Amino acid sequence: MPFRCPQCKTPDSLEIIAAIELPPDRQSGEIALQVIACTVCSFRGLAVYEEARDSVIESESWSHIGYWVSPDAVNSTLSAIQSCPDPQNPRCECPAHTSLGRKDVWGVWAGLLEMERGHTFLMRLAA
After folding, report:
1. DSSP 24
2. Which alpha helices (DSSP H) does the chain contain, by range?
3. Contact 25, 48 (CB under 8 A)
4. What is the radius of gyration, based on Cα positions, of the chain?
5. Residue 35: what are its φ and ψ, rounded to 5°?
6. Rounded-to-integer distance, Cα 4 and Cα 125, Å
7. What is the mean pLDDT of the chain?
8. Listed residue (43, 44, 46, 45) closest to 8, CA to CA
9. Residues paired with 67 in a beta bridge
10. In angstroms, rounded to a whole number, what is the distance separating the alpha carbons of residues 7 and 14?
11. 85: which of 58, 76, 97, 110 is 20 to 30 A away, CA to CA?
12. Rounded to the nearest 10 degrees, how much is the dihedral formed by the CA atoms of 77, 80, 81, 85?
């Protein structure tokens, strides 16, 4: 499912090139960390898809946020995801899942430091 690139604004050009399903946390029942890249321009970044833990079926209780981060952050995240033997398994206990899925003292996914420093954008479907 392609998205609109935040850099060149081309519809259907932003794709998820790698993803890892992380263990649920206190707030979210589903967390996916994604590496995204545009097929038209040079943009590469990260994205996070989260579904709320206590969501009602009829409600849309999810978010999909993109992050402008450094090339080093993209490359290190991509390498970590590629090193995982089972990236679609949130219960995998490999080093990638352990490091990328860290939680804070309150049991909430800690995210990545690079994401805290980057600017965000909505992952927009090219409609």
Report:
1. P
2. 71-83, 95-100, 113-117
3. no
4. 14
5. -100, 130
6. 6
7. 90
8. 43
9. 46, 120
10. 10
11. 110
12. 180
Please state the length of the chain.
127
Give the predicted TM-score (pTM) of the model: 0.90
The residues near 31 (Cβ < 8 Å, ≥ 6 apart) are: 21, 22, 23, 24, 25, 48, 49, 50, 90, 101, 109
Residue type, 14: L
Confidence check: pLDDT of 84 > 60: yes
Beta carbons within 10 angstroms of residue 38's beta carbon: 20
Smallest CA-to-CA distance from 76 within 93, 94, 100, 43 is with: 100
Would you give the DSSP letter of residue 55? -
Read off the tokens for 56: 């009602």
Structure token digits, residue 96: 């990638």
**For 34-52, how does the pLDDT look when each residue is reduced to its tens digit (9 = 90+)?**
999 999 999 999 999 999 8
Strand spans (E) along 8-118: 14-22, 28-38, 44-52, 62-68
